[in-house]
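Structure tokens please, single chain.
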Amino acid sequence: MADNSFTVLRQSISVPHGACALRAGTSVLGDFGKQLRIVAGRPHKAFLLHHESADADVLEDLRRQLTDAGFEAELFALADEGLRRLSQAEVLYNELGNRGITSDDALVLFGNAELLAVGLFVGASWCRGMTLAVIPTTLEAATEAVTPEPLGSAHYADMVSVQGAHPNLIFFNPEVLQDSEETRMRGRATMVASSMTDSKEAIERLAGRCQALLDNDVEALCRQVSDCIKARGLAVSSSSPNVRQGVNYGRTFAEGLCAALGDELAWSAAYAEGLRFESRLGVSVAGNDADIDVVFAQDGILAELGFDELTLSLSAEELIEHMKQVRFKRSRRFQFSLPLGKGRVRLKAVEDDLLMEHARAFCLSRAPRVAPTDLYTKE
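Here you go.
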């Protein structure tokens, strides 16, 4: 039975040019308004952005807390999907302007990863930045709280981001999560990737918590989310561009695989396969310094968390071509963020022959199995 007695975990998270306060547990929203006032200073307006499907009781509680803390609460609802677009940001800019929201006010984001992405983008760019607080409602949103996904323009998806799109406060309460199976698995995949960028100890902690996470143990979930956010914050705060790219571990392959297979493939499944592929590629690139235990440790965690290997029909040449296409949209260089050891993910170029060798091995291992009797079946 899951242990739900855990109350509050407090953690300071490094973000570029500053820090973020994380509060995780079942009682973190009890002093939400007070904590926001401490960060924002003298209270003025608080603009609470939420989904149309948000829990009405939680919304009312948040509104009351903001009011009790001295804020003038303003609420605005968005759809659940299709939010990571510049056109949606423009809607929010107009709404903030119409309501007289300034840099002295606070923006509170209560929603999924898409809402956090567009909200952090807008909050960081409106009046050169506002006080930002996030309350994730999915595991995916929680694990990406300090590394939101970019927005898309009318013709180019996932291409636009802004500096400073990081929250000042994160309130993670497992009791307000409204996860689908896909958003839950996306969050778990991000946990695995983040542990690989962190340290050997972080990987071991995640391995030891797998069953507790599957059992929805509150303390295990809060501690793992904290570890994940902390690792990603440290990575993007690094002065080394090489280290900052560690948050993209597994994504070059995953994006290429999704581009090759289309909408039929869930992102969480592609992400898990990207972690498997790039961990093996990292061992080959590291050469004599390779740590094969990285592959075994990660494979074990992915399997225990429910990420099965895919079955698909795809050529290595097609897979590599799609990886190059998605990579060259954002960079002149075709490189991978590869784990060269536990807690050491670095940006590396890969020789064409080596990449083809791994791509062929992957496609062969994932090809549909032919039943023995089919080998002798006549047309």
